[in-house]
Amino acid sequence: MAPLKMRSIAAALAALAPSYGCDIDADTLLETAEKMVDFGFRDLGYKYVILDDCWSNQQRSPNGSLVANVTKFPDGIKAVADKIHDMGLLFGMYSSAGLYTCAQYPASLGHEAQDAQTFADWGVDYLKYDNCYNQGQEGTSKLTFDRYNAMSQALNKTERPIFYSMCNWGRDYPWNWAQTMANSWRISGDVYDSFDRPDDRCPCTTYDCPLPGFHCSIMNIIGKVAPIVDKGQPGGWNDLDALEVGNGGMSDDEYKAHFSMWALIKSPLIMGTNIPKMTAATYSILANPAVIAINQDSAGMPAYRVWNRAADLDDFDQGEISLWVGTLAGGDYVVGLLNAGSTALQMNATLEEIFVDKRTTAGGSTKGPLPSSNGWDLYDLWANRMDDITANSIIMGNATVNGTIKDTSNSTSLYNATEMAYADGVKKNNTALLGVKTSSVAPMGTIQAMVPSHGIALYRLRKQEGASMKKRDEL
After folding, report:
1. In this structure, are residues 148 and 129 in contact, taking their beta carbons and an 8 Å threshold?
2. Which residues pair with 441 in a beta bridge?
3. Catalytic residue among 115, 125, 190, 332, which?
4. Interior CA angle at 104 toward 102 and 106, to 5°?
5. Residue 66 Cα to chain centre, angstroms
6. pLDDT tens digit sequence for 380-425
7. Pick the catalytic residue: 43, 52, 125, 130?
8. 371 three-class SS
């Protein structure tokens, strides 16, 4: 069985340290954790600080245990975990379901019980479990299931709640079977900091992929996940890989679209940039509470792609536009108009398109009018994006007290999810979570938005009270 203690409604929010590569050590990890607190990320819900590869010795101890590199972690891993816990954060660890990790350090294949207990004893709260050097134990769903389930069972036996993040790159279709034994599963090869540049090292463009590779662009991964978004569910999520926001390879509009799509699809939001050196622009994307609230919505339903159409090709001969729609708790919806073409476009989506599932699956059994026959208010989820002056004030330490934002009560861009959960904030119509009401759509009407090239228009839709068509008008 899966680690049920970790089957939370919402996907994980976290920080990873991949930008440091194998230079990671205790000081760097703790500095990242401290800045997560100082910048208010902890109170936005980013709880996990995840240590990636290269943390151990090249050899196990005489009794077969994993051993931390004493130069990098002179006081051991548990001491680091304890300090991170003292900050109100959770600690993530890395291993692989193979003989070696991807950087060729000892991994956990055949050592699952011993390593799981070691992780539990160290105070680990999250395990990223990779797929390198797997001894050929893949090629069928059963082979891969058994290999990853061995660690799932071992983690459960420790009786410590540990979020289990499978990183098998989508091999053998984990979205079909991982829900019973993992909390998230990667659906693709490794992401890289490009919006849509094709790369031969990421050869597949669909989820049915015998060679996941790496250097997979944002649009490549979105295309792969589109047919399988419904496989994500509370406690078990499609993982689109770490966020590239802030790493320098994309434009501001591209990073906004990247963050928005990961949030819509309910991927874990794992910051993959250098947090202590974060810019104001990066901060204001990663700290947008209105978008995070979509990711953390209590309904736990990923958005899906309604349509996908050709658009003007860009420098990489790529171009498409698409409409994404998701159901939210309390009767709200989220709508994303994604423009991956080379020019800014006015994009349109009718209410009939947005609510196509309601129309095509009602079958005469739905009571009352269809949603498209109601009027809807549109709330722009990027309109309250934090300005650079405020973001820089937070980064410079002038807007927090002991890591808590001084005052979020009347803010349109700041939120403290430690004080009030996202679900409660939405119910109370918190402006920072709802965004800015920019327009309304009449019954059977159309949403229109000017969307920049490689950008997104993102809205929360809320039904208008009393604004519906009379029954005779629907006939």
Report:
1. yes
2. 376
3. 190
4. 105
5. 29
6. 999 999 999 999 999 998 776 555 666 676 789 999 999 999 999 9
7. 130
8. helix
DSSP structural state of residue 386: P
Please tell me the distance from the alpha carbon of residue 166 to that of residue 141, in angstroms, as a whole number: 14
Helix 112-122 with 141-158: angle, nearest 10 deg: 40
Let me know if 130 is a catalytic residue.
yes
User: Any catalytic annotation for residue 52?
Assistant: no
Q: What is the pLDDT of residue 360?
A: 72
The CB density around residue 213, as the number of other CB atoms within 10 Å, is: 17
Q: What share of the chain is helix, strand, coil (3-state, %, to 5)?
A: 30, 20, 45
Which pTM was predicted? 0.95
| Ramachandran category for residue 57: left, alpha or beta (phi over 0 → left; psi -120 to 50 → alpha) | beta
- DSSP codes, 177-218: TGGGT-SEEE-SS-B-S-SS---TTS--SSS--S---S-B-H
d(CA 293, CA 457): 16
Q: How far apart are CA 279 and CA 271, in angstroms?
A: 14
- Token pair of 421, please? 């959960």
